[in-house]
């Protein structure tokens, strides 16, 4: 059943936070993100003086009787995010407020997301230094999550926000709606198919004992890296029914021949895109490999039969992230 349409929160005053909600800057089936302005005295402000703020507005689910089960999904998302929010490469949550109908999550506002940076602005094209810097920030964020027992399960460019500070691009991991505290999961098709690991996608590689959420996140990181370098997806889904994926499984140099990735990158993605999860490279080793890359690109005449980046990277209803 589709969720009820959300109202326009523009002009709503959050008295406890001394915020006025402004125009909507992102929306989805289950939430809206609005700009926000602090209207109290800055001497008493709980936010950094020059902070640009956003409020994510989430509906509280209805329940026959009040109780902790009513807010379990939202509470799980917020508790997972709050657990790791202190990291400099993870979106900061300043405050969580609620009334009878909605949650209001006060966050920093950013310039955009990584999908926009790749597709709309093309900022990573032929830019080795920027790819290395940004992807290492993402790796640090995910490694911090894992070390604190949080496994994201929906890593993709739309869930990485950025802010431009001069020549520096700082990124922030966000949207923990599908995150879990379990290192082993039996939930399949969790996230967006292009970024899912084979074992989390469906029955072809499914394991009775469940799959490692650590290793599944590492696979997703490989797809994000591939997006940044090529502006393409390696495949639409990690299934043998997908021609691009089955070609890679048959020959792990398939992506190297089709895209302008360097031999160094080809070696790295071959260590990420391993169907056997326990054989995948660890994040700590992946960081070292990325640091040692001299170039992520090689010259090519053209690309043939590649998977273009979708115009809309969402797969089903998504709660928008502040940007």
Automatic annotation (TrEMBL):
Keywords: ATP-binding, Kinase, Magnesium, Metal-binding, Nucleotide-binding, Serine/threonine-protein kinase, Transferase
Residues binding Mg(2+), per UniProt: 159, 175
Any Gene Ontology biological process: mitotic DNA damage checkpoint signaling
Residue ranges annotated for the Protein kinase domain, each copy included: 19-297
Any one cellular-component term (Gene Ontology): cytoplasm
Pfam families named among the record's database cross-references: Pkinase
PROSITE patterns in the record: PROTEIN_KINASE_ATP, PROTEIN_KINASE_DOM, PROTEIN_KINASE_ST
One GO MF term: metal ion binding
InterPro entries for the chain: Kinase-like_dom_sf, Prot_kinase_dom, Protein_kinase_ATP_BS, Ser/Thr_kinase_AS
Protein family: Belongs to the protein kinase superfamily.
Name listed for the protein in its UniProt record: Kinase-like protein
Source organism: Dendrothele bispora (strain CBS 962.96)
């Amino acid at each position: 059943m589709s969720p009820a349409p959300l109202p326009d929160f523009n002009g709503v005053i959050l008295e406890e936070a001394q915020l006025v909600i402004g125009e909507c800057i992102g929306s989805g089936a289950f939430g809206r993100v609005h700009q926000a302005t602090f209207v109290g005295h800055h001497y008493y402000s709980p936010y950094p003086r020059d902070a640009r703020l956003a409020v994510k507005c989430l509906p509280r689910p209805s329940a026959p009787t009040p109780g902790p089960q009513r807010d379990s999904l939202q509470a799980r998302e917020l508790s997972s995010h709050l657990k790791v929010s202190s990291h400099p490469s993870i979106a900061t949550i300043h405050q969580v407020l609620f009334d009878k109908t909605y949650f209001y999550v006060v966050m920093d506002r950013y310039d955009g997301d990584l999908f926009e940076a790749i597709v709309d602005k093309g900022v990573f094209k032929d830019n080795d230094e920027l790819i290395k810097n940004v992807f290492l920030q993402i790796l640090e964020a995910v490694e911090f999550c894992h070390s604190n027992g949080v496994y994201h399960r929906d890593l993709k460019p739309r869930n990485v926000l950025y802010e431009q500070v001069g020549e520096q691009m700082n990124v922030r991991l966000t949207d923990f709606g599908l995150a879990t505290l379990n290192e082993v999961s039996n939930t399949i098709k969790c996230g967006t198919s292009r970024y899912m690991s084979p074992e989390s996608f469906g029955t072809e590689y499914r394991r009775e004992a469940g799959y490692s959420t650590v290793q599944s996140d590492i696979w997703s990181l490989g797809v994000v890296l591939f997006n940044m370098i090529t502006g393409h997806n390696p495949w639409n889904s990690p299934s043998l029914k997908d021609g691009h994926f089955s070609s890679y499984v048959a020959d792990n140099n398939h992506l190297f021949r089709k895209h302008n990735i360097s031999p160094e990158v080809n070696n790295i993605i071959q260590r990420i895109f391993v169907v056997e999860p326990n054989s995948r490279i660890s994040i700590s080793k992946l960081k070292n490999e990325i640091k040692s890359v001299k170039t992520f690109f090689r010259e090519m005449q053209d690309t043939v039969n590649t998977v273009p980046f979708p115009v809309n990277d969402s797969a089903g209803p998504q709660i928008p992230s502040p940007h």
